[in-house]
Specification:
There is one protein chain. The protein is an all-alpha fold. It has a domain of 60 residues. 51% of the residues lie in helices and 0% in strands. It contains five helices and no strands. It starts with a helix and ends in a 6-residue tail after the last helix.
């Protein structure tokens, strides 16, 4: 053990007794948005980007970050926005890419006949 560790332990013991020596989980940095701001952000995200004044019909991390910066004056790293939204109870949703006028029956028929026939013809990799 290093001498500085013993010095820290002694200082903790003198300040808080045995409780000062117990291992605790660090609380981390406090959030930059207040509880009220987080609740407002939740309401805005649920209402959609059009209600928030954007033209897009889909929220992106960049749009949420821009809205937070404009309304609360807080800038977050783009990678933190999805993490924060997840903490607020949201999950990433991606729209399915489908043609609006596609024939579902023709697609199902193609899948059953053509795609499965193609898959059957492909040699399987030996394990």
């Amino acid at each position: 053990m290093h001498r500085s560790a013993a010095t820290k332990w002694l200082a903790w013991y003198e300040a808080d007794g045995v409780e000062g020596l117990r291992t605790r989980i660090s609380s981390g940095r406090p959030p930059r948005l207040t509880l009220e701001q987080r609740l407002e952000l939740t309401r805005i995200v649920e209402a959609g980007p059009v209600a928030a004044g954007f033209r897009s019909g889909v929220w992106t991390g960049a749009l949420v970050g821009e809205w937070i910066r404009e309304h609360f004056g807080v800038a977050y790293h783009p990678h933190h926005i999805p993490r924060m939204l997840h903490q607020l109870g949201f999950s990433v949703q991606r729209p399915r890419k489908r043609l609006a006028r596609a024939d579902a029956e023709a697609q199902a028929l193609w899948f059953r006949r053509t795609l499965l026939a193609i898959k059957e013809k492909q040699p399987r990799a030996e394990e």
